[in-house]
Each structure stands twice: as C-alpha cells, then as structure tokens.
C-alpha cells in the first residue's frame, strides 16, 4: 500500500469514525427473494470500472447487509457501496469497506432504505421545493408551470447522495467529504439547488417537452464542476437567516415515528419562516435580548453576520398605529382597499431584489394550507391580515423576488419578546394594541368589509400578471459595472422611500429616493440604481452629526426639509405616509443621540 492510498483510507476511517471489528466475517449465500434485482443492479453499477470479481464482491456485500439488518434491498444501495468497494484497490480489506458503507448509510441515510414507502425521500422533496422557492423563485415557478416536480429528477440525487451523477470516484470522495464536514442533514438539498443553478442554461435552453430529461442528464464530470457546485451550495446555505437553517435542521426526516406528521406539515407550507427572535435581534442590535451568555448562544453569534433583512409589516394601518417594530417598512394602507395597489407593493422594492431578505409580518401565527396558492379565493378567510400576508407573498414571488419568508408567530410573538426584555416598541399604545388589549377597541371591523369586497378578485389579477406557461423563463441577471460614484455598502434594515420635493415649483420628482441609515451616515440615492450585487449608486452621503435640524409642518408631517451644517441649500423630500416620516425622524434622532455620546460607540464601516 503506497502512502497516497494509505492516506485516503485513513482519512475515511477518521471521517466516519470506523473501528475495526476482528470478529466480522462476510460470507453469505446469494438467496434473498429479490436476489435477481440485486444482481441486475450490480451489473449496471459503475459499468466499465468494476471488474467481474468486484461485481461478485459487491453482490455479496449488499446481500450480507440486507440479511444482517433484516431489510429489503433497494436501488441506490449499490451506488453508495461501490465507492467504498473501490477502496479495496488501495489495500482496504473487504470487511473494512463494508463497515465504512454501513457507517455512512446509518449516519447520513439512516432510514432511507428501511421504509418501503420512501417517506424520508418524500420529506426531502418537500424541503427541497421550499428552499428552491426561497432562493430561485423564478426557476421554481418555471419547473412548476411545466409540471416538473422533484420526484421526476431528484430521486437518484438523494438516495445515492449524488454518486450516480459523478463518474470519477475520486470526485465522489471529494463531494462526500464536504457533505460529512458540513454535518447538516439538508446539505444535499443545497447541493441539488446548486446543481440546477450550475446547469441552468442547459436546462432552460432545452425544448419544453425535454426539460425533465435535460435535468436528469446533467452530470458532474470534472473537478471544476464539483468544486463550483459545492461552493455554490455553501453560499446558498450561508445566505440564509440563521433561524431558517435552524428550523430546517429540526425536521427529523429519518424519524419513522414522526415522519407522517412531518409530511403533513411540509405539504402545507408555502414558504420558509424566520423566527421572531432573529427579527428582534436585527431590530435592536445594540440591546441584549438573550438570557444566555452570548458566547454560547448561536443566535447572538449570528447577529454579527450582516444578512440584510427587511421587515414588511402587512398588518392593517390601525394595528400599525398601535405599535410597530423599529426599522420595519409599512404596507401601503390602500392595499387593503385596492387589489391593484396590493399587487404593486413589490415594485417599491425592486431596487432591493436579490439583496434583501424580505420578512413578512402578520398579526399572529401564519396558518399555511398548501404549497400551491389558491387562485380562486372561493372560501373567504375572516383573518384579513392572514389573507394579506399570503397575497403579498405571492405577489413577491410572481415578480421574481428571492429570499421571501414569513415571520413566525407574527407581531404577537415579536411583541411578547419586546416586552419581555423591556424594549421600546415605536408608537406603542396599549389601549389599542390587540396584543395588550385583545378585548379592547375593535379595529378589525373597519377594514373587513372593504377587504372582503375585493379578495375574490385577487387570484384572477395575480394570474393575469403571472408568466404564462412556457412564455417566460427565469433570467440570470448580469452583474453591472460600478460607476465612479458607486460605494460598497453594508445594508441594514433602516430603509425608507421618498420623493424629492422642489419648493420653487411645488412639484415632486418622478423618481423615488431611498434613505439608508447606517452607523454615522445617511445615504440617499435614486431607487432603481441599486446593483443586484450589493453595490449602490449614492446621490448624497451626509454625516448624521452634520444635521442641524429636520423641519416639517404639523398639517403635512410627511414633508421633511433637511438642514445641514455648512450647506446653504435645503433638501426637501416627501415620505410615503405621515407614520413613515415619523419613524424616519425617530430613527435619525436615536442614531444622533447615540453618536453624540461618543464617536467610539459606533464602528465606522463605510468602504469607498
């Protein structure tokens, strides 16, 4: 055995924590009821690579495993066994190859081959479609429109952990080694999505009736293919809120006692959920809202990661006026009266598409019913906020927004966390807050009748704006060149939209401007100038400490005029609503006070 072979074998022994079993003797008769199936699969395994003797050994090992564990052979076992069998060429004893195979199966696919109905595999498919919708909604919609479900192309991916998609066994070792190091039961899901992304042009350029075949024919032929797919899979996982990843890991797809309940739950889910705790951590970054030591709390450690998240408060205006989470964007109240306004909500955030993770906030826990959205709305749901959240979610997905989730527990749970840690809830009025006074003044009836009058038309409108079958395919957006004034920024949740107001003409600008409050800086730029690769063209950058005052009129508080030190020119803007204007001024005031207490409190992160 040469040094390279010995190193490879020792690496896999260490990775799998396999110990020798001197009592193990692998000898068995080839007499299982489905022995012909085993033999047939063995003949098709690694054609042109395995020798005749290796095929005989493979059949013996598979038969021995099925007898030892009293389980029926299933396709896929052969593809998992073959790479470990091939280590015998490097001097690994047959018994050790068998022990590695068994440890690998029991660790990473523990009940995949035990259940006759392949229910763990079904759970993988359901999680896969949710994660695909989150990261690639256009591709998800494209596959759905063409009737292509994961069952049609991803079965072999998950039951062989991609071994059947790679001809070079050394590349299988590489992929499996990364999979083991990730120690994440759903890393195969991220790899699957990365494969679709890697081969998207090949898939999208195929004829409509050949799409499924095109996906089934993709293979990882080169080391570059494997490295790029693994890198993309790691990026996909990294670019997810921590609470979403944590929730996914709690789905025990290999627990046969709870699998049926899990399948029922997953079949109803239409999106992924971000936890209320993570939202509050983002909304109050300077506060400690954890009873555990930050060094031992993963949530607290994760808050240092700057995944840009925006809370879109989808509650009614009356509910919002009784209290809002800091730095959240407020739904246009006309959305509850006009379905066209509702469906145009995502347009206000086009400049943020592909950058921000949009977290939709309802009043309470969102009650999912189906992955597929109902286009008819024949059964009116009395919970108008629940209806609104679902419709806004669908509107964002139709317009190709990735990273859209719903906040688990809604405002009710966020409110509980905020009060538990004595945090400030902006504009909070306990008398009108439905969480504080559920039996207090009834505000919901003010909008129920108006909302019900148009909720039945939502499906038709969404359908009319959705891409027709086969007419639209997801487009990979190209990276744009940065201009001279482009600044690499680190986005936060403090985001506002307004129009420029020219006092001399009394006219508003056609363009909308975004406001970003970050550390000691106020950024102002034209909406639509944001590059989807995290770069923004900034029109103005002001130091918050240079703001002399911000003025507005009592009758029209949404009109704001900025006065800066050293500038004779005044800058006037019109916020979308009075409440939005108040929120913005409060945010600037809080940041000014924080900065004024000491320049070292805020770490400057502006990069030019």
TrEMBL record:
Coiled coil residues, start to end? none
Q: List the Pfam families hit by this protein, alphabetically.
A: RabGAP-TBC
> What biological-process GO terms show up in the record?
retrograde transport, endosome to Golgi; vesicle tethering to Golgi
Q: Which InterPro entries match?
A: Rab-GAP-TBC_dom, Rab-GAP_TBC_sf, TBC1D23
Q: Where is the Rab-GAP TBC domain?
A: 2-183
What are the record's GO terms for cellular component?
cytosol; trans-Golgi network
**Name of the protein in question:** Rab-GAP TBC domain-containing protein
Q: Which organism is it from?
A: Blepharisma stoltei
């Amino acid at each position: 055995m040469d040094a390279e072979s010995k190193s490879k074998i020792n690496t896999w022994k260490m990775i799998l924590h396999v110990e020798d079993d001197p009592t193990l003797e692998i000898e068995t008769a080839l007499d299982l009821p489905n022995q012909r199936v085993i033999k047939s699969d063995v003949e098709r395994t690694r054609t042109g690579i395995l020798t005749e003797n290796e095929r005989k050994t493979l059949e013996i090992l598979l038969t021995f495993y099925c007898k030892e564990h009293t389980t029926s052979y299933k396709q896929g076992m052969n593809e998992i066994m073959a790479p470990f069998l091939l280590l015998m060429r490097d001097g690994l004893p047959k018994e050790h190859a068998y022990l590695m195979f068994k440890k690998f199966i029991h660790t990473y696919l523990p009940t995949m081959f035990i259940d006759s109905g392949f229910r763990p595999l079904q759970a993988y498919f359901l999680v896969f479609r949710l994660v695909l919708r989150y990261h690639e909604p256009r591709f998800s919609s494209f596959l759905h429109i063409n009737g292509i479900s994961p069952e049609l192309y991803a079965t072999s991916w998950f039951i062989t952990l991609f071994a059947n998609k790679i001809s070079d066994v050394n590349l299988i070792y590489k992929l499996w080694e990364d999979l083991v190091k990730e120690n994440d039961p759903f890393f195969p899901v991220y790899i699957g999505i990365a494969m679709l992304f890697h081969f998207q042009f090949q898939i999208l350029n195929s004829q409509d009736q050949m799409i499924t075949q095109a996906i089934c024919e993709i293979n990882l032929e080169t080391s570059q293919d494997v490295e790029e797919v693994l890198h993309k899979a790691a990026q996909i996982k990294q670019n997810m809120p921590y609470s979403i990843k944590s929730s996914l890991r709690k789905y025990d797809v290999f627990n046969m006692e709870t699998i049926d309940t899990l399948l029922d739950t997953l079949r109803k889910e239409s999106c992924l959920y971000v936890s209320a705790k993570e939202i509050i951590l983002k909304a109050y970054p300077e506060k400690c809202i954890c009873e555990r030591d930050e060094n031992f709390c993963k949530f607290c450690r994760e808050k240092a990661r700057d995944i840009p998240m925006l809370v879109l408060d989808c509650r009614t205006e009356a509910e919002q006026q009784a209290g809002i989470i800091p730095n959240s964007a407020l739904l246009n109240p006309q959305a509850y009266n006009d379905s066209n306004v509702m469906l145009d909500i995502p347009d206000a955030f086009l400049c943020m598409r592909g950058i921000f993770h949009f977290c939709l906030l309802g009043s309470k826990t969102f009650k999912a019913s189906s992955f597929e959205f109902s286009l008819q709305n024949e059964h009116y749901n009395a919970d108008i906020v629940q209806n609104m959240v679902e419709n806004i979610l669908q509107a964002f997905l139709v317009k190709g927004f990735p990273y859209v989730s719903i906040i688990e527990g809604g405002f009710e749970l966020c409110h509980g966390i905020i009060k538990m840690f004595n945090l400030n809830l902006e504009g909070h009025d306990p008398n009108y807050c439905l969480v504080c006074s559920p039996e207090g003044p009834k505000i919901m009836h003010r909008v129920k009748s108006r909302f019900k009058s148009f909720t039945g038309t939502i499906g038709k409108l969404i359908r009319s704006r959705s891409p027709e079958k086969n007419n639209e395919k997801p487009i990979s957006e190209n990276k744009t060149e940065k201009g001279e004034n482009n600044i690499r920024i680190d986005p936060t949740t403090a985001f506002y939209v307004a129009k420029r107001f020219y006092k001399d003409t009394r006219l508003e600008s056609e363009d909308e401007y975004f406001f970003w409050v970050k550390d000691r800086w106020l950024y102002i730029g034209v909406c639509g100038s944001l590059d989807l690769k995290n770069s923004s063209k900034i029109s103005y950058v002001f130091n918050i400490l240079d703001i002399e005052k911000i003025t507005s009129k009592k009758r029209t508080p949404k009109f704001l005029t900025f006065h800066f030190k050293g500038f004779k020119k005044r800058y006037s803007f019109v916020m979308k609503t009075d409440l939005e204007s108040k929120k913005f001024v409060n945010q600037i005031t809080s940041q000014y006070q924080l900065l004024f207490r000491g320049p070292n409190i805020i770490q400057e992160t502006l990069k030019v």
